[in-house]
Design goal:
Blueprint lengths: L4 E7 L2 H10 L5 E8 L9 E2 L7 H10 L4 E4 L2 H5 L2 H6 L9 E2 L3 H8 L1 H10 L7 E5 L3 H10 L4 E5 L8 E4 L2 H13 L9 E5 L5 E9 L4 E3 L4 E2 L2 E3 L3 E4 L4 E4 L6 H21 L6 E10 L2 E8 L7 H4 L7 H9 L14 E8 L24 E4 L2 E3 L5 E3 L3 E9 L2 H14 L17
Parallel strand pairs: 1-2, 1-4, 2-3, 4-5
Antiparallel strand pairs: 6-9, 7-8, 7-9, 10-11, 10-16, 12-15, 13-14, 15-18, 16-17, 18-22, 19-22, 20-21
Helix pairs in contact: 5-6, 7-8
The structure holds adenosine monophosphate and glycine.
Length: 430
């Protein structure tokens, strides 16, 4: 790479702080802008008050600030077509976007599309059928023919709430009716996928692709429920670990041949020019990988354990994605275990309090990576809570148990009113 790059990173969560932290270490970086960012990303570059879905404002910013590359954190700008928007503009079309176009983002944007994709390319996944309002009666009959638990998924994006799993047939039928006839999840549930329940242990697989070749990034496991022992309501993610001990060499081999290669080859066969991250949610069912879902972006909080384990200059990797030369890159992976514990606001994932002063950030051990998820500065540069998920506290260590202990101690050390975190992140698999 000849020149120093001006980078625009879109997003404001812990994932984006981890990206900003990693990009800030690049020898190819000139200026890093994060839009809208948070109090943590402000330490890695310049925050810009601009929504990640406001394409017109982003376009003007990219043009005015001679941005060389745009990295998209979340799914919304991708499913809304930010990449296509750039390609359609004479001034912007030469600025690479890390993230797929709308056709590739459909892997996340439509469950029905992604199930058909998996079927077409022989990728293992739960058996399914999809229904609309006009086929509600068939949907009810289909449910009756299944054995519980029943899995219902709104077709479109529903802020992580569109999946319902229930043992109760009456409830399943009522939910299906609510989704299809009463638009329970708005337009996202105009179509509903009903699928076979898969019993096993989940993990998150991340692949970076330039549309021709790919790299498999470190594997991770996310802890989705609010309560200890995976109980209570679903959240955006309460912590993560990488690597995942059960993903041994034999499992990784199966993942690669049965899931990853057919996915990348499937995109090529379907003429989907995909440049960015593919996040594959996997269920390990008795040693066999099944795809639960695709996302068109990195995971959060998985990014907060995956990026700290990649030693490469991340702009080398992104440039290789943009120039379709990823095959010339070699990933350098840190063998240590990374564990992140998410500190959240009181009340989360339901209604929660914000604007609480965060204390003790400055006195964390220096090897701790405190990635900001929902924070902001007040007028005196104090850091305040500004979201349900507040801080992802990552520790790395050769001993997984020690990584766990360091992450937990640092989460304990952080102080703000209403702080909550899970004390069992990683315990089940270490
Ligand atoms: P999704 O939004 O598709 O990732 O689904 C959310 C969560 O529901 C997943 O992380 C799984 O824990 C669970 N889930 C989804 N599909 C299934 C399935 N077919 N069998 C069992 N659990 C599932
Ligand atoms: N941690 C799950 C997600 O990012 O969707």
């Amino acid at each position: 790479m000849g020149k120093q790059l001006n980078i625009l990173l879109l997003g404001s969560g812990g994932r984006e702080h981890a990206f900003a932290w990693k990009i800030a270490q690049s020898k190819h970086l000139q200026n890093l802008y994060i839009a809208p960012g948070n109090a943590g990303t402000a330490r890695c570059g310049t925050n810009v008050a601009m929504a990640d879905t406001d394409f017109e404002t982003i376009k003007n910013f990219v043009w005015t600030n001679a941005i060389d590359m745009v990295i998209v954190g979340a799914e919304a700008p991708l499913t809304l077509g930010i990449h296509d928007y750039f390609l359609a503009d004479d001034l912007l079309k030469t600025v690479p976007i890390i993230g797929p176009k709308q056709d590739g983002a459909l892997l996340e944007g439509s469950k029905d599309f992604s199930k058909k994709f998996m079927l077409r390319h022989g990728i293992p996944t739960a058996a399914y059928a999809s229904f609309t309002q006009s086929t509600l009666a068939q949907g009810i009959d289909f449910l009756t023919s299944l054995t519980p638990p029943y899995v219902l998924k709104a077709d479109g994006l529903a802020a992580g709430k569109g999946v319902i799993i229930t043992e109760d047939l009456t409830e399943a039928k009522a939910e299906l009716t609510e989704m299809l006839t009463n638009a329970k999840f708005g337009a996202a549930s105009a179509k509903v996928v009903i699928e076979e329940f898969l019993s096993g242990i989940e993990c998150s697989v991340f692949v970076l692709t330039d549309g021709k070749s790919y790299k498999v990034l470190p594997i991770a496991k996310d802890y989705k429920r609010i309560g200890k022992g995976d109980t209570g309501l679903n959240t955006g993610g309460m912590g993560a670990v990488s690597p995942v001990p059960f993903a041994n060499e034999a499992f990784m081999q199966k993942l690669e041949t049965k899931v990853i290669q057919p996915t990348i080859n499937g995109l090529i066969k379907d003429n989907i020019d995909y440049r960015g991250f593919v996040f594959i949610g996997i269920m390990n069912v008795g040693g066999e990988p099944y795809v639960i879902e695709y996302n068109c972006r990195m995971g959060d909080p998985e990014t907060e354990v995956v990026l700290p384990r990649i030693n490469n200059d991340i702009l080398d990797l992104f440039d290789a994605v943009a120039t379709q030369t990823l095959n010339t890159q070699t990933l350098e992976i840190d063998p240590r275990t990374a564990i992140t514990t998410m500190c959240v606001s009181g009340g989360y994932p339901e209604e929660y309090v914000k604007d609480k002063l965060i204390k003790n950030l400055g006195t964390l051990p220096k090897e701790i990576l405190a990635f900001h998820a929902g924070t902001r500065f007040d007028e005196n540069e104090n850091v305040l809570t500004n979201g349900g998920r507040v801080l992802a506290i990552t520790a790395l260590h050769t001993s997984p148990n020690q990584a766990r202990k360091l992450s937990q101690e640092a989460a304990q050390h952080i102080d703000y009113a209403g702080k909550y975190y899970r004390t069992d992140i990683g315990l089940d698999i270490l």
